[in-house]
């Protein structure tokens, strides 16, 4: 069975095809949920964010020009929704200064694969300690597989800034994980 392209699904969805829209959602829902979960560290908030993201995509689908891949456009919307989440949650606190959040138990979100296993759990906890912009870089580069150019275009920053933020994040992650190893 052949897989329809994003562009074909978008065209059909814009013509009112419910199955085409559902196809787009199914294709990206786990990636969007996992992205939201890693960014906000709470399964219910991640689910709410995922729904908000897809509502925004649905409402704005006709404005997608196709200049870049749909996935990039979708994750740009997801990025802005996550920023809005932080602004609503902590209106007087910078998104770069968000405190470490408590870890959710694995039972609270069984479909979330990242928290399974000790190494993945340690990485997840370490990522929650990163400032928002650095966490975003790790998410986009390693979990969503965007290039530095894609990241720079989506965030309106230079490629060098994207690299710098990622390498700073990786240095912090390394330090956090080494401390975890020593403590274990």
TrEMBL record:
It holds the Pfam family Sigma70_r2. One of its GO terms (biological process) is DNA-templated transcription initiation. Transmembrane segments: none annotated. InterPro entries: RNA_pol_sigma-70-like, RNA_pol_sigma-70_dom, RNA_pol_sigma70_r2, RNA_pol_sigma70_r4_t2, RNA_pol_sigma_r2, RNA_pol_sigma_r3/r4-like, WH-like_DNA-bd_sf. The keyword Transcription applies. Residues 122-173 form the RNA polymerase sigma factor 70 region 4 type domain. GO terms for molecular function: DNA binding; sigma factor activity. Residues 24-90 form the RNA polymerase sigma-70 region domain. It comes from the Bacteria. Keywords: DNA-binding, Sigma factor, Transcription, Transcription regulation. PANTHER family: RNA POLYMERASE ECF-TYPE SIGMA FACTO (PTHR43133), RNA POLYMERASE SIGMA FACTOR HI_1459-RELATED (PTHR43133:SF8). Belongs to the sigma-70 factor family. ECF subfamily. This is Sigma-70 family RNA polymerase sigma factor. It comes from Thalassotalea algicola.
């Amino acid at each position: 069975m052949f897989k329809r392209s994003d562009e074909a699904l978008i065209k059909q969805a814009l013509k009112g095809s419910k199955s085409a829209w559902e196809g787009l959602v199914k294709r990206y829902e786990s990636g969007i949920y996992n992205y939201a979960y890693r960014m906000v560290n709470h399964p219910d908030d991640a689910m709410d964010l995922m729904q908000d993201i897809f509502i925004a995509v649905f409402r704005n689908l006709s404005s997608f020009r196709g200049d870049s891949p749909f996935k990039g456009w979708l994750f740009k919307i997801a990025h802005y929704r996550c920023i809005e989440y932080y602004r609503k949650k902590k209106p007087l606190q910078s998104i770069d200064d968000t405190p470490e959040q408590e870890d959710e138990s694995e039972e609270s979100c069984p479909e979330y694969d990242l928290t399974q296993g000790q190494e993945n759990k340690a990485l997840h906890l370490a990522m929650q300690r990163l400032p928002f912009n650095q966490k975003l870089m790790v998410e986009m580069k390693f979990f969503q597989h965007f290039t530095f150019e894609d990241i720079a275009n989506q965030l309106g920053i230079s490629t060098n800034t994207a690299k710098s933020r990622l390498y700073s994040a990786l240095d912090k992650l390394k330090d956090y994980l080494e401390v975890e190893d020593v403590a274990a």
